Amino acid sequence: MTNAQIDTVFFNGKITTLDKDNPDVTAIALAGGMVAATGSDKEMRALAGPLARMIDLQGKRVIPGLNDSHTHLIRGGLNYNMELRWDGVASLSDALAMLKIQADRTPAPQWVRVVGGWSEFQFRERRMPTLAEINAVSPDTPVFILHLYDSALLNGAALRAVGLTKDSQDPPGGKIQRDANGNPTGMLIAEPNAMILYSTLAKGPTLPLSDQINSTRHFMRELNRLGITSVIDAGGGFQNYPDDYNVINKLHNDGHMTVRIAYNLFTQNKGVELADFQRWSGMVKPYSGDGFLRHNGAGEMLVFSAADFEDFLQPRPDMAANMEKELGAVVRHLIEQRWPFRLHATYDETISRALDVFEQVNADTPFNGVRWFFDHAETVSDKSLERIKKLNGGVAVQHRMAFQGEYFVDRYGAEAAKHSPPIRKMLDMGVPVGGGTDATRVASFNPFVSLYWLITGKTVGGLSLYGDENRLDREEALRLWTLGSAYKSNEETVKGALVPGMYADLAVLSHDFMTVPDEAIKDTVSIMTVVGGKIVYAADEFKSFDAPLPPVSPDWSPVRHFGGYQSGALEGAVKVASACAVHGCGHSHHHHASGHDGILSRWLGLDGSGNKPSFENPWAIGCGCFAY
């Protein structure tokens, strides 16, 4: 390495490299988008030529860029600028105030959409909004609010927009809640199939191409603000290949990628899944592309008959009898084509049956190093983990339990929740594990909320799920979110650690992730993010290095007014007059002690009262205007 090659040196920092030979340094030298060297300030200064850019880290903690091994960036980017985010909002009153502001800003025929990333338990009021409240704050603008995988709330205007009436029929696996006269109330319920939720959401207006490009750029920037430099995109429902990849391909071709993406292909067509993969395997080769956009195989949906649901408000579904036959045909084709694959599976019952298929295929069509893994695996058993290990598979875990843990405890008990998922067991057994979010429709895209969950074992509502035996220390959690995720796209030799010869992807943090109190972890953001040696985001004391984007479009976008992930109280929103004042309920909806907390949270004793009712049915108590 000659001095002339070093183009940037970051010094005077606390740099966690995850390099076992050089784990903690104060300076790092970059050359041509790669890490050239790490060491002391003096050593790195000596390497730098006179033209190298020298950047003082001012004592800040630096980590390798974070890598979400399961998210939906490509689909999420097309919609990001249309969505009002309740991620991180501290109270329901703030959330409803935001909803009112956005309803007043949104032109017809557009909707206000709150699509995932929140839980009732994050709110001080510890309850869901009611349909009456939603209709009060937005009588005319359609509103669609998605709650996890279990339900959606639509105001009257949205019901009219999607044509739901007294005569509408319940779809298979879904329920339209009705009043005493048979009219839809506005609640759609997954029982247990979320298709009713997503198919209704898909009826809303889309953004024009220019705004989808802008939206995707701003979504990537928001991820950069949170320290993310790479993701693995798990496809998703209504995300068709290649049509819905035009925007990301254009951004890639134009050099506007600020997050590296490895993408998996997700079948959309029930009954003809094999034909999808046969067609795609003639169009794209495994790992083709480059360091910013590359193919990563099949999944998370391989066949519809193998897809269980992660709605813990509903009983576990049994997979169809034809699962093994259909899954076997697809997996055999993938192995023959040497395609890596991933499979969505929440429950051990699904995982065990899938493993039967994988073992059978492997017997006559050996996997021989093809990388594969399960996504989610909340209730995977020790026996199944042993089988996964034997087949050289892995697991990608996400912090869905941080958003649904209370519901899981309610259905399966606190003891079962202690190892859902059994992350420590996976690591102890040597099963490769990647960290992630499953954003954007359930959990938030904020990686620090996931890291907080891994380290503390707590939900966003503060419920402790895990004991010491299933929590990770900070470096272990960070490894899952860097090297662990890189393994899932066969890139662990080029990303995930700050080692000479690997990508110069790093995040300079607002808080010292390695030492701050636990509760401060989830408030951490990046104040400077570097991808391939280029500063793609900078704020606060590093603001002068920022590379701003064009303004958010369209101009009515919720992102333009509120931004993405919220932190704490919203000054603009809370100045709005009470959003609930005219909904007709006689209770106060704004005071924690009003006794109007969410039914399940009170039953679980999470509202601070210490009074847990003895009813077997937790839904039988509480105020009658609760959304359920």
From TrEMBL:
InterPro entries (alphabetical): Amidohydro_3, Metal-dep_hydrolase_composite, Metal_Hydrolase, YtcJ-like
Amidohydrolase domain: residues covered: 54-537
GO terms assigned for molecular function: hydrolase activity, acting on carbon-nitrogen (but not peptide) bonds
Name of the featured protein: Amidohydrolase 3 domain-containing protein
Species of origin: Micavibrio aeruginosavorus (strain ARL-13)
